[in-house]
Amino acid sequence: MDPRSEVVLRQIDQLSGQVLFIHAPNDQLLNQLGPRIDASIWTWNFSDYQGFQAAGFKTHFGVDFPQQQFNQVVIFVPKSKELLNYVLHNIVSHLEIGQSVFLVGEKKGGVERAAKQLHTFGHPVKLDSARHCQFWQLKLEHIEQQKPLESWLKTYTVQLKDQQIEICALPGVFSQSHLDVGTAVLIPYLDQVKSGTLADFGCGAGVIACYLAKSNPANTVYALDVDAFALRSTELTFQRNQVPASQLRLQPVSSIADAPFELDAIVSNPPFHQGIHTHYEASEELCKTAPQHLKNGGELWIVANRFLNYPHLIEQRFGQCTLKADQQGFKVLYACAR
Fold first, then answer.
1. Measuring CA to CA, which residue among 229, 177, 193 is closest to residue 42?
2. What is the chain's alpha carbon radius of gyration, rounded to the nearest angstrom?
3. Rounded distance, CA 13 to CA 72, Å?
């Protein structure tokens, strides 16, 4: 069991009634809560959502606060400070003064920093410190009126050859305030991507997906991501750049296994972090199983850190892997399914 969940169980007597668990890990916590607690989950991780759904728990996937009443809320601290601010705002715009908000997180995950963010709404108290984690309680003294989602956006403009694209990114989305180096290295090669039905795996704020759609009105682009905030950001990026909605297919995925088949190309700056932890499984699976999702002659385009062993994995499955670029610590890799 996740150590954060173990700390929650140490303080189980603090919880009762309709309790919303936000960004909770998909472990055995909810099975051990007991009859006093009617638990619901709010998660923006599609893989966790599928796990909770399969276990029969009340689960909400998305960027919006669940539309029901709660007595208490337990937040598992997200990596992003801006995302925690967004979550806290949604909580205090739906709860009432005097209700309790609990915060749990790892010390190395920034729980002490996160606890300071609670001070805007009252006086938090540390109830427990164990398993290298902390558990805090806040009784709300201040509430707020809910702000529109668009007020949380960060935007920036990217010059992509002969066109500009305005990027819209919500809190917690990868490279929220600027273009990341890996995508910048990949961009000059996007004009070489085969036209047709394409997928951007790990779409983030939609930089790659939007460019592929704008470069050819005949392209249909599947934006694939595990994160609801990324999917909504990509949708907003398409809207801001007046790309027809008919060119975009938003699809939450746990891995490349959830991607559509018969694609003309898969393009990816693949993710390799989950929270504060490095996690290569999703991107390695992409290298290994991409041919199953491509048409004959379909293409795989990946940009990845130079030190990662993706060329070997791609060669094993495609029979070849072409190095298109090696710049600024990143490699652009290409393979064609035969």
1. 229
2. 21
3. 13
Contact 17, 68 (CB under 8 A): no
Query: What whole-number distance in Å separates Cα of residue 64 and Cα of residue 219?
Result: 30
Alpha-carbon distance of 305 to 315, in angstroms, equals: 17
- Of 282, 255, 284, 259, the residue nearest 199 (C-alpha): 259
**In degrees, to the nearest 5, what angle opens at C-alpha 22 toward C-alphas 20 and 23?**
150
As a whole number of angstroms, the distance between CA 165 and CA 183 comes to 14
- Cβ–Cβ < 8 Å for 297, 256: no
- 8 Å CB contact between 39 and 68: no
Tokens (6 digits) for 112:
């002490």
| Type of residue at 125 | V
Half-sphere exposure of 169 (CA within 13 A, CB side): 25
Compute how many other C-beta atoms are within 10 angstroms of the C-beta atom of residue 338: 11
In single-letter form, the type of residue at position 120 comes to T
Question: Distance (Å, rounded) from C-alpha 71 to C-alpha 77?
Answer: 19
Q: Check residue 277 and give left, alpha or beta (phi > 0: left; psi -120 to 50: alpha).
A: beta
φ, ψ (nearest 5 deg) of residue 41: -120, 135
Q: Whole-angstrom Cα distance, residue 165 to residue 145?
A: 32
127 CB-near residues (< 8 Å, 6+ apart) = 11, 14, 135, 136, 137
Axis crossing angle, helix 310-318 with helix 281-289, rounded to the nearest 10: 30
pLDDT in tens, 107-143: 999 999 999 999 999 999 999 999 999 999 999 999 9
pLDDT digits (tens, 9 = 90+) for 205-242: 999 999 999 999 999 999 999 999 999 999 999 999 99
Whole-angstrom distance, CA of residue 29 vs CA of residue 126: 21
d(CA 89, CA 83): 10
